[in-house]
Design brief:
By secondary structure, the chain is an alpha+beta fold. It has 5 helices and 5 strands.
Length: 223
């Protein structure tokens, strides 16, 4: 399914030109509803903290995300002792630990690995591909301050996971994966929420990804 479906008529392999990232495609094709919600949040943050303060907050958020991903990576590889995390990242780490107990590090298939789907023309870095509760799946680690108990609250995260799932399957024809999970870790340290996407849900989000990719091509004149 994932390796061969094309949103448009296309050659077997796309030219060796820089491929857009999954994040770039999703950002460029964001729905008006999502764009408006993001704009309202940014305006509220700027009103509260000022432009410079907001810029610092965003950089701090990115820094915490990088730190958490690095800690998870080390944990899964089991190649080095777990280093102490910063105070800002500690709550997220405590939050994600219960979910990590269900990830089989010995069966790790990919961690922070670049993926390229040269037929469809996109690339990205998948957080993790590993058995989760004994079932191999793509796993994306996310952070949040408020609980996200429904898939709807994840916005484009499931589409992102499906895009990585497709790229992984494209380059691993003999080790296909048909499920994904979005794990949301919380600043408060409360146990992370795990959203497991079934094969049917992954197919639906994959179809949405193909439409977003087609929209991106049309709007950027990529053929």
């Amino acid at each position: 399914m994932y390796p061969t479906e094309e949103p448009t008529d296309a050659h077997t392999e796309r030219p060796a030109t820089p491929l857009p990232s999954v994040s770039r495609v999703l950002q460029a094709t964001m729905s008006e509803e999502s764009r408006a919600a993001l704009r309202r949040w940014e305006e509220a943050m700027i009103a509260r903290h000022g432009p410079d303060g907001f810029a610092q907050i965003k950089e701090a958020m990115f820094s915490v995300g990088r730190e958490l991903h690095a800690a998870i990576h080390r944990h899964l590889l089991g190649s080095a002792p777990e280093a102490p995390l910063s105070l800002a990242a500690d709550g997220f780490w405590r939050s994600v630990r219960p979910a990590l107990r269900h990830v089989d590090g010995a069966g790790l298939l990919a961690a922070e690995r670049p993926l390229r789907h040269t037929q469809l023309g996109y690339q990205g870095v998948v957080d993790c591909v590993a058995p989760f509760r004994s079932c191999p799946m793509v796993i994306e680690w996310k952070t949040a301050r408020r609980p996200k108990y429904s898939v709807r609250e994840l916005y484009d995260n499931p589409v992102q996971a499906a895009a990585y799932l497709g790229a992984y399957n494209y380059t691993h024809r003999n080790a296909q994966v048909d499920r994904a999970a979005v794990v949301v870790a919380y600043e408060s340290g409360r146990p992370a929420t795990v959203h497991v996407l079934s094969p049917a849900e992954c197919r639906r989000h994959w179809a949405a990804w193909l439409q977003r990719l087609l929209q991106y091509r049309r709007e950027t004149d990529v053929v």
